Amino acid sequence: MTIHADGNREEGNMRRAIALGTLLAAGTLVLAATSRPANQEPRTVTIQSMDVRENLYVVSGGGGHTAVLVTETDGVVLVDTKLAGWGQSILEAVQAITSQPVTVIINTHTHGDHVGGNADFSATVEIVAHENAATRMAGMDAFAGAGAEFLPDRTFGDTLTLFEGRDQIDLYYFGTGHTDGDTVVVFPALGTAHMGDLFAFLGPPYIDVGNGGSGVAYPDTLDRIVASIAGVRRVIPGHIPPPPGSPMRGWTTWDDLREYARFNRDFLEAARASKEAGRSVDEAVAALDLWARYPEYGMDRAAANMQAIYDELGQ
Ligand SMILES: [Zn+2]
């Protein structure tokens, strides 16, 4: 069944459409929300329930995955806001499932495809991020001048807990990896974590050295996460798209995260061994033997990461 609602609502020069559909992945509900800025391509996101009873959703499209928690009494909490200009699509998707206002935004890290939509929400929304991410964000063009209003209002160093009971959200910082300000967001009552881009996709991760990322520290950070957090079964990754042809799946599992931590450890060890053996970066990539053990992993970034790790280990 598809319900298409379009056209009757116009605000400014934005025309919006919401298509409501169902998709039959084990009790989950999928809605598609499209905002259509004048003279631009429509921006379509999909919102999928992690479990209808639990009020946790994943919004996909337009940048990193956005998690949506509809709390019992404190409004709607978003984790990440996608690329600039996509906040309206997130809002449309949220409004399709609840009349509660967005009250809190958690930004997992400084990248524009995770914080860009902040400016599309009310300035009264509380924005939360790790202190290093907040510092990095303050240096972004998007947050210069009037944009500074959409910088984090609240920061933390190691951990921060928001709300309680079913709505509890635990924020953790375990060290550098993708950047130097990556937050792990855990919904303990729901057994679910949003990993941001610490775990963005299956393959060598993007190591943003310019924003404090580290390929040498990355496996340690992931190991600390796996060792420290208990009770999480489902993991919302930064970007992993739904597998082609399969029902939409905006999440993966704790076992997948564990495997990904192992992969990053194996990659670093291979880099160290090759460097010690005097191999060039190209030779080190050619010598990698991870393909057989991690068949689902894309290796597009292997050379870039080998170079980044070589640079970090020193010539
Ligand atoms: Zn990122």
Task: Describe the model.
The chain is built from seven helices and 16 strands. The chain is an alpha+beta fold and about 325 residues long. It has helices at about 85-95, 110-115, 130-140, 220-230, 255-275, 280-285, 300-315, and strands at about 1-10, 15-20, 30-35, 45-50, 55-60, 65-70, 75-80, 100-105, 125-130, 155, 160, 170-175, 185, 190-195, 235, 250-255. It has a domain at about 50-265: Metallo-beta-lactamase, Chain A, CATH 3.60.15. The strands form two sheets. It has a ten-stranded mixed sheet with strand order 1-2-3-4-5-6-7-8-9-10. It is globular, with a radius of gyration of 20 Å. The termini are far apart. A hairpin with a 5-residue loop joins strand 3 (about 30-35) and strand 4. Bound molecules: zinc ion (ZN).
Structural class: alpha+beta
Count of runs of 4 or more consecutive helical residues = 7
What is the CATH architecture assignment of the domain at 48-266? 4-Layer Sandwich
Strand content: 25-35%
- Segments where pLDDT lies below 50 for 5+ residues? 1-27
Q: Just give the CATH class of the domain at 48-266.
A: Alpha Beta
Shape label = globular
Percent range for helical residues?
Answer: 10-25%
Reading the helices and strands in chain order gives: EEEEEEEHEHEHEEEEEHEEHHH
CATH superfamily of the domain at 48-266: Ribonuclease Z/Hydroxyacylglutathione hydrolase-like
Beta strands, count: 16
